[in-house]
Design goal:
This protein is mainly α. The protein is built from 4 helices and 2 strands. A hairpin with a 6-residue loop joins strand 1 and strand 2.
């Protein structure tokens, strides 16, 4: 359409009201739309902030409850070398509870089972004869002195 075709339409719209009244109403409607958008944006930011705050609070409470229950994730920093050394030296101060037994005492621990002690004195190996020779889990050797 040409510009001349719009003239009758504009005259029909403007015939009922003056141009000044139309401008005021248009401005008021534009301001109302802008206010609503701003109001929605403020509320959206407020909801986002409150949701983030509640999430952070929940996370902090979860971490605090884990540290109270002693979960593996909240055990604290890894021990330092000095702490490990201190624990090792305190455990070395305690006397060893190892008692050496004779061959007869060892054989008496397994009554009713076929056993054999094989090897030179001080390096004997205990063999359980009721198991297959490929099963190495039944053999025990005393520590070398």
């Amino acid at each position: 359409m040409k510009h001349s075709n719009y003239d009758p339409l504009l005259k029909g719209i403007l015939a009922d009201e003056s141009l000044e009244t139309l401008r005021r109403r248009s401005l008021a409607q534009g301001q109302a739309v802008t206010r609503r958008r701003r109001h929605r944006a403020v509320w959206a930011k407020a909801w986002l902030f409150s949701a983030m705050s509640l999430g952070a609070l929940g996370l902090l409470l979860a971490v605090a409850s884990r540290s109270r229950t002693g979960s593996p994730m909240a055990r604290g920093p890894a021990p330092t070398n000095a702490l490990i050394l201190a624990k090792a030296t305190t455990s070395l101060k305690q006397p060893a509870a190892v008692r050496f037994i004779s061959d007869d005492e060892l054989l008496a621990l397994f009554p009713g089972r076929p056993l054999a002690l094989v090897g030179p004195p001080g390096q004997k190996t205990l063999l359980f004869l009721d198991q297959s020779p490929t099963d190495k889990s039944s053999e025990t050797s005393p520590p070398d002195d």
